[in-house]
């Protein structure tokens, strides 16, 4: 198959060499491999190796060579006008024209089959020889508009002796060029100007190399896989110049040296033991051609094996509780710096307790409170250098990540592997990622213990040549420190028994060596103790829960619009569940059970939510546990329980024994102890098989023998729920609790009455959530049961100081909807007394910070005498949605004679997302308060309101002239949250741009940011602020200008002037501002190009985005964007790209 038209002499022509053009039926799927020759040659000659017996071997076409390695790829050669001596009857082609010809030829390649995808979408791998690599680089950089599909289809490039920094021809150019011109003149021709591109590293060549480098190593994961080769053989340079070889002595050098073959993204080019002319020729076969054999080394086999067997879709899939697969891009991983968390906690301890979230809240207990924004770090930036306490920058190579069960540590590992393979994340740092689930080492039978043995055990057991492959992989890991392997050591807590130096010294020593690898990420649960020889990590992180915006995005992604809206409304009313669903597995569970038929009126408490989740999961699991249950959907809850009674009892006993033993990971020996006690009789499955089919449990030993796997509950709260179920069952049946000490080697069980257990453990921290579930479950058993429970709680022993007891009462009350009025009022009265006592006696107030404090207690405390301000300060941190009654009580405090009370009351209301008209009107009245801090607090309270009435706006405008700068600043911010501003408001804000206080000027500039159309007067005022002495003001002014749909030349010039600002944030704001414009002058774009060299990566990224947003770029500007990818071996890369592209095509077909 060739082009449908006869090519002209100056065209770039593609010819298909595999499969042969005359064969019927072409490869389904796959990629196109396009080979581009170098200077002064053509295909097929440039690719043919001439054997001693006169045969020509074309490695692109020979069925035993490349076609055999990439069976469903089409292979093309591309001829372009590459003559060294050009005719005199036509204008000389520039490199830009040659690049465009090349793009046109590639664009014109034929589609595969009639029912195949368009040729434009078919992935491309380029093989470029010598100067052909330069022409190809220029083409890809210029591939915009109609040629953009070529750039988008490109997956990788193999550069063979491409002179990125010139050739050694530069050394002989003084006498060689006159010789070439003489020879050309004799033949009636001229020397092509292309020769200038291979002499030395010119400015244009340096610029091009920078562009292609950025293009290859695109930080958004859209770059190319790249490798480069250089020759080690020497070329006789005079012999390349006609006539001069007879006049000058031999001068042998490498034509393209290692230093010239380097790209920044591939700093270590690979050598081929041959001269330049043979760099694109291989004789084959693999057994006889050492350089060609490079493509089939054990390293390539190891990579292919690991990728296909261990990093395949099955291993990397994220499975929801429903069994559905969740796309990896919907799996959010949030990481926070532990050092910063500790600093923040330490700082908080020195501050007023009332200004901190409650340490007794559910969010605190399950560790999902979001840390400060400064503590959080993006996954892709883990290995960026970080500033140390002494101010020095340090490279990051060793990372320790802690995280609790269910928060996403395993998902994190899968995402790292996925993004490394699919998005080239960290490819410029590491040649490969080796994910080692440490739990698999428990089945490793040694000694000896070593890296080769571990690689064999984890990855290569099923290969017949495992020993040599593992050895080669180990050697590469150890010999390639700078770009070797990144080890992900997953689940250190799961092998704590292997870290016992006394019982297993050989394994201990090996694990310490493994943990101390140069480049490593280690994941573990928080409680693990690290070996004493463990080297301190460069970075210590903690996985944290979802942010609120991620919770919302996840719900929308997995639910229908109606269900999504209902879940959001439910969460708004339940601060307790808002905390819980920040744990990924909890959020998934809630989304699984919620459908349009769910009776949401039953979901008022945490207990009720868990009951609904558990029931839905049992309906799902029954299908896997029982062979034939055709009427599951019609079964009542009681019928479901009857069908899985033994399984429920098994989970309850496992959960309660685990709680009492402080154990969350259950080994086979623990399971056997429970089973010996329960003795299930109705199940036909082995117990380990039963546990493996339950949605409530997870195993850490997916690859282990099912009979020896360990299990843990989906999340600790599910263990606490089933433990509570067991307690309630024994309580209501008046039977004793029987449980095992799972930490003891003895198999005797413990026995105690529920009442005694309650009295002994009611204040024990690890039972806090279990007691909440107990209260909720008992409330459904009748008033007598729940009354008896509270009576037992209130028996001795008491908490001496009282808060722990009252907090227990408060948590349990929150789970009970139907409690006799007399009982509730009595306990709420006692709780109120403690709330007021704590405030007055200790000078602090913790109870109001808890979202579970009963509303009547809250309102009574607000009306009681005493220090109301301290109480209000604590309440502002509760994150609860206040009722109309409570807000009315707070509004009543606006008349309090204490200004601190008025200030704090306004502050509490400012934390609410919506305010009633009555509340807003009261806040407007407070804007005229005699105290400036009260006026400021009232203005701040109005900041969250997206729509303000004319009356409110007028009152805020009046505050812009307040004598206190903080009041003026707050009023400006409140006005700035409005989507549109009147002329009067805008004029008032313009006046504020000249305020004597820089913070006020900044607030005024920020207030104008949302306005897409500003008057010339406003714009001029903002331009003036670009020279303000405060960098924050300059940055805010640039942001405001950047939101304008069009900018004048004057405004643009002023923003360009900020590119030289000493503050990086100002330079970035200027670049972002200009990036919002679709058409910029060449002068402005040239200035943006200059920012690509900025030392700050965010500025470089903003500049690149700004250039990318331009509708057109001139040729001059086109010479500036690029970067690249990874080091490996020639056909290894071909195979890797081929497999990756095939995988992508398969995925697109399914979708």
UniProtKB/TrEMBL annotation:
Protein name, as recorded: NACHT domain-containing protein
Task: Keywords in alphabetical order, please.
Answer: Repeat
Q: Which PANTHER family match?
A: NACHT DOMAIN-CONTAINING PROTEIN (PTHR46312), NUCLEOTIDE-BINDING OLIGOMERIZATION DOMAIN-CONTAINING PROTEIN 2-LIKE (PTHR46312:SF2)
Q: Which Gene3D superfamilies match?
A: alpha/beta hydrolase, Leucine-rich Repeat Variant, P-loop containing nucleotide triphosphate hydrolases
The lineage, from the top, is: Eukaryota, Fungi, Dikarya, Ascomycota, Pezizomycotina
Give positions of region: Disordered: 1-29
Tell me where in this chain the NACHT domain is found.
397-526
Report which superkingdom the organism of origin falls in. Answer: Eukaryota
DNA-binding in keyword set: no
């Amino acid at each position: 198959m060739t082009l449908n038209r006869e090519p002209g002499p100056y065209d770039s022509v593609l010819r298909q060499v595999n499969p042969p053009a005359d064969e019927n039926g072409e490869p389904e799927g796959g990629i196109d491999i396009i080979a581009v020759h170098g200077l002064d040659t053509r295909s097929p000659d440039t690719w043919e190796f001439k054997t001693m017996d006169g045969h020509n071997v074309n490695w692109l076409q020979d069925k035993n060579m490349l076609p055999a390695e990439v069976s469903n790829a089409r292979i093309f050669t591309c001829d372009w006008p590459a003559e060294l001596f050009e005719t005199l009857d036509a204008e000389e082609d520039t490199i830009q024209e040659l690049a465009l010809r090349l793009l046109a030829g590639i664009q014109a390649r034929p589609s595969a089959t009639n029912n195949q995808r368009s040729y434009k979408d078919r992935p491309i791998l380029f093989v470029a020889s010598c100067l052909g690599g330069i022409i190809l680089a220029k083409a890809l950089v210029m591939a915009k508009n109609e040629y953009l599909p070529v750039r988008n289809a490109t997956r990788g490039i193999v550069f063979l002796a491409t002179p990125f920094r010139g050739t050694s021809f530069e050394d002989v150019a003084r006498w060689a060029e006159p010789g070439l011109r003489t020879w050309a003149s004799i033949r009636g021709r001229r020397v092509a100007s292309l020769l200038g591109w291979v002499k030395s590293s010119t400015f244009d060549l340096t610029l091009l190399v920078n562009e292609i480098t950025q293009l290859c190593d695109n930080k958004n994961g859209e770059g190319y896989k790249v490798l480069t080769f250089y020759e080690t053989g020497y070329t006789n340079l005079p012999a390349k110049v006609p006539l001069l070889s007879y006049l000058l002595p031999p001068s042998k050098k490498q034509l393209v040296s290692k230093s010239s073959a380097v790209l920044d993204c591939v700093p270590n080019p690979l050598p081929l033991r041959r001269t330049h002319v043979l760099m694109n020729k291989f004789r084959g076969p693999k057994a006889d051609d050492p350089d060609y054999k490079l493509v089939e080394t054990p390293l390539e086999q190891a990579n292919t094996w690991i990728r296909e067997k261990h990093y395949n879709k099955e291993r990397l899939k994220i499975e929801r509780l429903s069994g559905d697969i969740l796309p990896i891009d919907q799996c959010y991983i949030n990481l926070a710096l532990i050092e910063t968390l500790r600093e923040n906690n330490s700082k908080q301890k020195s501050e007023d307790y009332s200004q901190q979230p409650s340490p007794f809240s559910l969010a605190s207990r399950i560790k999902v409170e979001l840390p400060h924004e400064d503590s959080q770090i993006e996954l892709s930036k883990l290995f960026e250098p970080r500033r140390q306490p002494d101010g020095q920058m340090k490279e990051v190579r060793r990372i320790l990540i802690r995280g609790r069960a269910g928060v996403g540590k395993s998902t994190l590992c899968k995402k790292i592997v996925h993004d490394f393979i699919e998005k080239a994340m960290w490819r410029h740092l590491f040649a490969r990622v080796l994910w080692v689930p440490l739990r698999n080492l428990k089945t490793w039978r040694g000694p000896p213990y070593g890296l080769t043995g571990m690689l064999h055990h984890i990855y290569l057991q099923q290969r017949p040549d495992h020993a040599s492959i593992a050895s080669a992989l180990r050697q590469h890991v150890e010999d390639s420190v700078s770009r070797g392997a990144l080890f992900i050591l997953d689940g250190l807590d799961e092998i704590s028994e292997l870290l016992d130096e006394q019982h297993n010294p050989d394994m201990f020593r090996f694990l310490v060596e493994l943990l101390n690898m140069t480049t490593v990420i280690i994941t573990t649960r928080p409680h693990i103790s690290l070996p004493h020889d463990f080297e301190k990590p460069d970075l210590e992180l903690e996985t944290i829960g979802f942010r609120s915006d991620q919770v919302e995005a996840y719900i929308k992604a997995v639910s229908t619009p109606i269900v999504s809206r209902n879940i959001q409304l439910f969460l708004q009313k339940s601060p307790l569940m808002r905390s819980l669903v920040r744990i990924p597995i909890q959020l998934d569970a809630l989304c699984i059970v919620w459908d349009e038929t769910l009776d949401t009126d039953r979901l008022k408490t945490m207990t009720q939510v868990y009951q609904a989740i558990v029931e839905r999961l049992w309906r799902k699991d029954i299908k896997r546990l029982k062979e034939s249950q055709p009427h599951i959907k019609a079964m009542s809850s009681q019928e479901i329980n009857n069908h899985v009674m033994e399984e429920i009892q098994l989970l309850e006993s496992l959960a309660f024994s685990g709680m009492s033993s402080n154990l969350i990971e259950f080994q086979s020996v623990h399971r056997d102890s429970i089973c010996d006690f329960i003795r299930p009789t109705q199940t036909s499955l082995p117990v380990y098989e039963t546990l493996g089919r339950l949605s409530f449990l997870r195993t850490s030993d997916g690859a282990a023998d099912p009979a020896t796997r360990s299990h843990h509950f989906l999340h600790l709260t599910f263990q606490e729920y089933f433990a509570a179920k067991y307690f309630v069952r024994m309580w209501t049946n008046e039977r004793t609790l029987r449980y095992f000490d799972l930490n003891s080697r003895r198999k005797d069980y413990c026995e105690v009455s529920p009442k005694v257990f309650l009295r002994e453990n009611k204040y024990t921290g690890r039972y806090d959530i279990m007691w909440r579930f107990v209260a909720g479950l008992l409330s459904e058993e009748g008033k007598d049961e729940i009354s008896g429970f509270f009576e037992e709680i209130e028996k001795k022993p008491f908490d001496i100081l009282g808060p722990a007891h009252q907090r227990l009462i408060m948590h349990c009350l929150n789970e009970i909807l139907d409690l006799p009025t007399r009982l509730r009022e009595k306990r709420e009265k006692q709780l109120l007394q403690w709330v007021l006592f704590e405030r007055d006696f200790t000078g602090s107030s913790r109870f109001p910070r808890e979202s579970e404090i009963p509303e009547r207690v809250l309102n009574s405390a607000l009306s009681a005498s005493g220090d109301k301000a301290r109480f209000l300060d604590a309440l502002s941190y509760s994150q609860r949605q206040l009722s109309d009654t409570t807000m009315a009580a707070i509004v009543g405090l606006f008349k309090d004679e204490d200004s601190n009370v008025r200030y704090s009351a306004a502050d509490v209301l400012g934390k609410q997302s919506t305010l009633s008209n009555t509340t807003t009107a009261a806040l407007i009245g407070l804007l005229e308060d005699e105290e400036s801090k009260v006026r400021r607090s009232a203005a701040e309270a109005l900041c969250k309101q997206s729509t303000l009435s004319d009356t409110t706006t007028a009152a805020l405008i009046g505050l812009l002239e307040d004598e206190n700068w903080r009041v003026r600043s707050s009023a400006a911010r409140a006005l700035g949250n409005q989507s549109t501003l009147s002329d009067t408001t805008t004029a008032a804000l313009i006046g504020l741009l000249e305020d004597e206080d820089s913070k006020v000027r900044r607030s005024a500039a920020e207030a104008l940011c949302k306005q897409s159309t500003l008057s010339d007067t406003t714009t001029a005022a903002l331009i003036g602020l670009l020279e303000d002495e405060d960098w924050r003001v300059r940055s805010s002014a640039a942001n405001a200008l950047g939101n304008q749909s069009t900018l004048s030349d004057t405004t643009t010039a002023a923003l360009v002037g900020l590119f030289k600002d000493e503050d990086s944030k100002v330079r970035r704001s200027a670049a972002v501002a200009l990036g919002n414009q679709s058409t910029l002058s060449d002068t402005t774009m040239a200035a943006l190009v200059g920012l690509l060299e900025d030392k700050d990566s965010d500025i470089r990224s903003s500049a690149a985005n700004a250039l990318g947003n331009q509708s057109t770029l001139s040729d001059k500007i086109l010479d500036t964007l690029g970067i690249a990818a990874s080091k490996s071996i020639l056909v290894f890369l071909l195979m890797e790209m081929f497999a990756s592209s095939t995988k992508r095509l398969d995925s697109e077909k399914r979708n």
